[in-house]
Amino acid sequence: MSAPKITDVVVTPVAVLDPPLLNASGVHEPYQLRAVIELRTDEGVVGLSEAYGDTPTLNNLRKAAPSLIGLSVFDLNGLTQRVAVTLAGVTPSTLTDLVGKASLQKTVGQAIGAFEVACFDAQGKATGLRVCDLLGGAVREEVPYSAYLFYRWAKHPAGATGPDYEDDDWGDALDPAGIVAQAQRMVDTYGFASLKLKGGVFDPDAEADAIEALRAAFPGHPLRLDPNANWSVETSKRIAKRLEGLLEYLEDPTGGNPGMGEVARATSLPLATNMCVTAFQEIPEAVALDSVRVVLSDHHYWGGFRASLKLAGICETFGWGLSMHSNTHLGISLAAMTHLAAAVPNLNYACDTHSPWTREDVVRPGALEWNTATGSLLVPGGAGLGVELDYDALERLNRQYEDCGVRVRDDASAMRLAEPGWELRTPRF
Ligand SMILES: O=C([O-])C(=O)C[C@H](O)[C@@H](O)C(=O)[O-]
Ligand SMILES: [Mg+2]
């Protein structure tokens, strides 16, 4: 069997159109940034991966990249060690506070994960195996995803849009009727079962009204609400009481394990998180305070596939459910999330994905196929991740990155274009 060695690492930032989705931190800007990683090898095999495209992440990826030259794509312990050594002194950074606090472990984990996924893709291409087979074998050939519902505007605020920006055709969704209509379109298009509403935007009772409207319109669909820690403990307790029996889980109503623990003791609703358990060192406190019942994993910051499998084992140990978190992403990450979810037996909730909001991609069409009866993505069949890079699209979206001027995600400044006095307050309600 061949063991390709890394000869070159190419990191290409891209910007993709993104609609004005509202959240606790403000509103999405017209462009979201991603980085496409190509690991080139001495055997011609190229491993692909996708990471955040903000400047701190790009700097870290580019700083760590030279340390990988000469490494076998199978030497994942070597990869972990080289990246950890190279990035030992970097300033911790995070894409957004909506995925929890920045820490060195997460910052280094982001780079390890980004390169590790590309190594797995290269391993698959070298052996003819799919990534899910390299991760222990697929326990499912279709991965269920949830509809990711957002309050949103029809258009970005004046002053936000960049060159060639064209609004999408979803219109606004600012009340229960708008959210139900958005959910209907997602269910009709993809067949999603679970429906997740991104909250933390409006008065919590108005968001609970939207959940009740979703329950009435979709009696058999599991529902989730995620205020991204924008509620106080008292508000969380009150709204959790109101929503008991209506949600499969309540995600990050309030911030931090102590507050989440207090809310957990006051409600029968399972609490889920991608904010207070986002790295291994946060787990002991969550266990001690019994603050969460479900963890949303994310290979992008937990440190890659192998770290995600380790997290799955820890969730199993403590009887925690496992779900999957998403930030705006493209087809390489969707393939990576799907292979991982296919290989984790206890991933027992439908995964989040921003896919329905993404209108541009760097992968060739065809490899990522939805079962629109069940809202599931078929595990790609080709070797490795099973997706191919469209180099014309990569070049165009890289040019868009160069032209658009966005370099870090800043939902709060985008919000201030519409509401000049708007301040980030956590919690707001
Ligand atoms: O589940 C979550 O907390 C997220 O998906 C965080 C994201 O950043 C989301 O809020 C977004 O895209 O605005
Ligand atoms: Mg969340």
Automatic annotation (TrEMBL):
<dbReference type="InterPro" id="IPR036849">
    <property type="entry name" value="Enolase-like_C_sf"/>
</dbReference>
<dbReference type="InterPro" id="IPR013342">
    <property type="entry name" value="Mandelate_racemase_C"/>
</dbReference>
<dbReference type="InterPro" id="IPR013341">
    <property type="entry name" value="Mandelate_racemase_N_dom"/>
</dbReference>
<keyword id="KW-0460">Magnesium</keyword>
<comment type="similarity">
    <text>Belongs to the mandelate racemase/muconate lactonizing enzyme family. GlucD subfamily.</text>
</comment>
<dbReference type="Pfam" id="PF02746">
    <property type="entry name" value="MR_MLE_N"/>
</dbReference>
<feature type="domain" description="Mandelate racemase/muconate lactonizing enzyme C-terminal">
    <location>
        <begin position="176"/>
        <end position="270"/>
    </location>
</feature>
<dbReference type="InterPro" id="IPR029065">
    <property type="entry name" value="Enolase_C-like"/>
</dbReference>
<dbReference type="GO" id="GO:0008872">
    <property type="term" value="F:glucarate dehydratase activity"/>
</dbReference>
<dbReference type="GO" id="GO:0046872">
    <property type="term" value="F:metal ion binding"/>
</dbReference>
<feature type="active site" description="Proton acceptor">
    <location>
        <position position="198"/>
    </location>
</feature>
<dbReference type="InterPro" id="IPR034593">
    <property type="entry name" value="DgoD-like"/>
</dbReference>
<dbReference type="Pfam" id="PF13378">
    <property type="entry name" value="MR_MLE_C"/>
</dbReference>
<comment type="pathway">
    <text>Carbohydrate acid metabolism; D-glucarate degradation; 2,5-dioxopentanoate from D-glucarate: step 1/2.</text>
</comment>
<dbReference type="InterPro" id="IPR029017">
    <property type="entry name" value="Enolase-like_N"/>
</dbReference>
<protein>
    <recommendedName>
        <fullName>glucarate dehydratase</fullName>
        <ecNumber>4.2.1.40</ecNumber>
    </recommendedName>
</protein>
<keyword id="KW-0456">Lyase</keyword>
<feature type="active site" description="Proton acceptor">
    <location>
        <position position="325"/>
    </location>
</feature>
<dbReference type="InterPro" id="IPR034598">
    <property type="entry name" value="GlucD-like"/>
</dbReference>
<keyword id="KW-0479">Metal-binding</keyword>
